[in-house]
C-alpha cells in the first residue's frame, strides 16, 4: 500500500464530508451539480470514449477541454488513465487487469488505487503511443494540479472557503466513487444483467448507468468498446451519449461507424 496516496484519499474524503457540517445554499448546490457534470462528462467523453477508445472525433480544443475537466479529480494523468483502461479491456477479469475483481470486491473498488503493484507508471509509453507525444498531455502528466487549483481559487473568490466542500470536493468525490463503482459492481457482481456474451464478467447495472452518466451499461461497452453510445434503447439512459448526440447536432463531433453497427442485444438477459 502507498501511504501517501492513502493519506491524500483520507484528506480528500474529509474535505468532501466537511460539506455536511457547513451550511448549504441553493446556488452552492447547483454549482456543485455543475462541477459533478463537468468532471463526469470530461471523464466519460474525454478520457474514456475519446482518448481510450477513439469512438468519436471532435476538434482538438474540445478534446483538451474535456480532458482538462476530467483532471479536476487529481486522479493520475490522462496518459496513465488511458493506459490503465486499455490494460483493463485487454485483460478484463484476468491476470493483468489493474482492478481485477478476482482480488476481492474492495480491491477492485478502491484497493487497487493505493496498491502500487496494480499499476505501472510507465505503462503509457507502451499502451498510449498514440498520445505519448502530445505536448499538452505530457504537460498534464506533471501539472494536473493546475486545473484543480484554478477551480479552487475561482470558488473561493466567488463564494469564500465555506462553499468549497459542497461546490468542489463533495461532487469530485461523488464522481470518483461512481468510477470505483463501475469497476467493482459492473464486474463479477450478482447485480444487473448481461445483454452480450462478452469474454469477461461485465454487467449492465441501471443505477450505476444513471450515476456514472452512462458508464454503468458496462456489458454493452465491453462487448462493443468502439461504440461511443453505451445505452441501448430509450430505457438505458446514457447521459454522456445524449451530450455526445448534441455535440454531433452542433457539428462538434462525429461518431465512429461502430455506433451504427451494434445489435440491441445478443445474449438472453439473466
Ligand atoms: Zn470494465
Ligand atoms: Zn472502456
Question: Beta-strand percentage?
Answer: under 5%
Number of strands: 2
Order of helices and strands: HHEHHHHHHHHHHE
Cα Rg: 18 Å
Question: Describe it for me?
Answer:
There is one protein chain. By secondary structure, this protein is mainly α. The protein is 55% helix and 1% strand. A two-stranded antiparallel sheet has the order 1-2. The relative contact order is 0.14. The model has no long low-confidence stretch (mean pLDDT 90).
List keywords for this structure.
globular, single chain, mainly alpha, 1% strand, 270 residues, binds zinc ion, two-stranded antiparallel sheet, 2 strands, 12 helices, 55% helix
Topology of this structure?
Elements: H1 3-17, H2 26-52, E1 56-57, H3 60-70, H4 78-90, H5 105-114, H6 124-127, H7 135-143, H8 145-159, H9 164-185, H10 206-211, H11 218-223, H12 239-249, E2 254-255
Antiparallel strand pairs: 1-2
Bound molecules: zinc ion (2 copies).
One zinc ion binds next to helix 2 and helix 4.
In short:
The protein has 270 residues and is an all-alpha fold. It has helices at residues 3-17, 26-52, 60-70, 78-90, 105-114, 124-127, 135-143, 145-159, 164-185, 206-211, 218-223, 239-249, and strands at residues 56-57, 254-255. The protein has a two-stranded antiparallel ribbon.
Amino acid at each position: 500500500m502507498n501511504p501517501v496516496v492513502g493519506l491524500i484519499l483520507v484528506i480528500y474524503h474529509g474535505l468532501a464530508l466537511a460539506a455536511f457540517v457547513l451550511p448549504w445554499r441553493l446556488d452552492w448546490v447547483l454549482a456543485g451539480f455543475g462541477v459533478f457534470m463537468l468532471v463526469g462528462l470530461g471523464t466519460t467523453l474525454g478520457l474514456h470514449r475519446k482518448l481510450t477508445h477513439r469512438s468519436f472525433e471532435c476538434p482538438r480544443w474540445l478534446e483538451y477541454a474535456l480532458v482538462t475537466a476530467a483532471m479536476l479529480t487529481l486522479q493520475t494523468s490522462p496518459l496513465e488513465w488511458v493506459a490503465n483502461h486499455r490494460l483493463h479491456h485487454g485483460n478484463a477479469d484476468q491476470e493483468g487487469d489493474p482492478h481485477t475483481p478476482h482480488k476481492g470486491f474492495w480491491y477492485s473498488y478502491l484497493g487497487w488505487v493505493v496498491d502500487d503493484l496494480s499499476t505501472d507508471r510507465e505503462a503509457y509509453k507502451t499502451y498510449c503511443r498514440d498520445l505519448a507525444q502530445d505536448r499538452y498531455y505530457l504537460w498534464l502528466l506533471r501539472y494536473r494540479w493546475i486545473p484543480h487549483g484554478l477551480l479552487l481559487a475561482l470558488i473561493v473568490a466567488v463564494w469564500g472557503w465555506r462553499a468549497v466542500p459542497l461546490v468542489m470536493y463533495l461532487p469530485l468525490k461523488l464522481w470518483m466513487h461512481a468510477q470505483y463503482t463501475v469497476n467493482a459492481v459492473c464486474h463479477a457482481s450478482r447485480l444487473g444483467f448481461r445483454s452480450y456474451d462478452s469474454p469477461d464478467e461485465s454487467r449492465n447495472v441501471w443505477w450505476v448507468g444513471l450515476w456514472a452518466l452512462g458508464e454503468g451499461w458496462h456489458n454493452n461497452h465491453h462487448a462493443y468498446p468502439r461504440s461511443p453510445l453505451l445505452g441501448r434503447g430509450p430505457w438505458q439512459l446514457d447521459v454522456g451519449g445524449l451530450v455526445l448526440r448534441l455535440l454531433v447536432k452542433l457539428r462538434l463531433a462525429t461518431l465512429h461507424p461502430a455506433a451504427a453497427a451494434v445489435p440491441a442485444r445478443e445474449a438472453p438477459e439473466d
